[in-house]
Amino acid sequence: MSRKQKYEYQFKLDLVNKVIREEDCVHGLSKLHGLAKSQLQFWCKLHEHHGEKGLENIVVKSYTADEKLEIIRYYQASGLSLIDTCAIFMVASFSTLYQWVVKFEQGGYQVLVDKRGDHFKKEKTAKKMVKKKVIPGINDSMTDLERLTIENEYLRAEVAYLKKLEALAQSKQVKKKKP
């Protein structure tokens, strides 16, 4: 999923090339074009680390907690700036990395885990489990209470069956051990 880009690829490339050829400085160009100085610095770093391809649209993506941790550890160990680190890992915004670092320092690894939508995932998983396991006596016209009552009875019977099966297996093992 990509977001709408505010600046065209060619515009970014032209500005970066001017900085590289030292035709103008970052401060002067950013002021002339109404850009944040840090934005132009970021484009220059993207170009430095990834070439012209780095100036193409950065796809905004979701990062796993492990990916975030890897980027944070690299940032802390390397001593590079937020802008440099984001350019290396193609993180779309250095404020995002800053937020990850602050959260990690305050709460550790667990705060890096994205929990958005978890309750929807749990509901879907529970519904899938019920749908996969065909329980006799349940139909769509039943109320939730009726459905849950029948499912509860079914699960109790299943647990009792499994306990008896396990007891039988254990008794067979005991008989085998006796000479």
Automatic annotation (TrEMBL):
Q: Which SUPFAM superfamilies match?
A: Homeodomain-like (SSF46689), TrpR-like (SSF48295)
Family annotation (Gene3D superfamilies): Winged helix-like DNA-binding domain superfamily/Winged helix DNA-binding domain
Q: Which InterPro entries match?
A: Homeodomain-like_sf, InsJ-like_HTH, IS150/IS1296_orfA-like, Trp_repressor/repl_initiator, WH-like_DNA-bd_sf
GO MF: sequence-specific DNA binding
Q: Where is the Insertion element IS150 protein InsJ-like helix-turn-helix domain?
A: 67-117
Taxonomic superkingdom? Bacteria
Q: Which PANTHER family match?
A: INSERTION ELEMENT IS150 PROTEIN INSJ
What family does this chain come from, according to its entry? Belongs to the IS150/IS1296 orfA family.
Stated name of the protein: Transposase
